[in-house]
Amino acid sequence: MRHNATRNIMRAVLPVTLMTCFWIAGALAQAPKYPPLPEYMMSPEAEIALARSAAPDNISAHATIKLLTASGYKVAKEGDNGFVCMVMRGWGAPTFTPSANRNLVYDPQTRAPICFNPVAVRTVMPYQEMRARLAMEGKGPDEIADAIEAAYSRGELPRMETVGFAYMLSADQKLGPAGAWRPHMMVYTPYYTNAMLGGNEGNSGLPVISDDAGTPFAITVIPVDRTLAVKAQLK
Asked: Which of 53, 104, 169, 222 has the fewest CB atoms within 10 Å of its CB?
């Protein structure tokens, strides 16, 4: 991290596009209270199927699958291609964006199937798993943001210094009250801002920085053709 600029960058007002993967209107922001943990849970069979729907079958069929348990994410099936598929909950909402987006942590119905490539498995997945643990401990959005920033500064989270990516192709995703969005790729582009992509509009269908712009956790969202959406299938 660029230590002498980290706090100013992370606490800056960050642009949020209408195409954020965790799109949520301020008027629909959840009340600041966590529902009981069981409301976030799924049956193992359904969660495995949903996790696999994040990526094309040639990837997800060979990926490791992680499921949410009362003690965090645990491996349910070992893969052999270095990818890891899981279903993020609202706890994975943007960390350093306005509160309407961060308050999505309180939505127990959010289901965000994602499949990380090997680079993102090393860099992004630990960050997301930490967010889940903090939320399950009852930490609110501000506390999560503070804890993430502190852990990153201390080197307790991997440095986000290279590009990784993840598939989010599921036709059954539920990204907060806005519901499903089109299939897309998440490209982890540390410190990028939307201006660096050409300033594309959020609803243009072009690549856009959706979350946490200007921070180590900045995400470029690249929409793909709707026909590439993958339906979850119980096996």
From this structure: 222
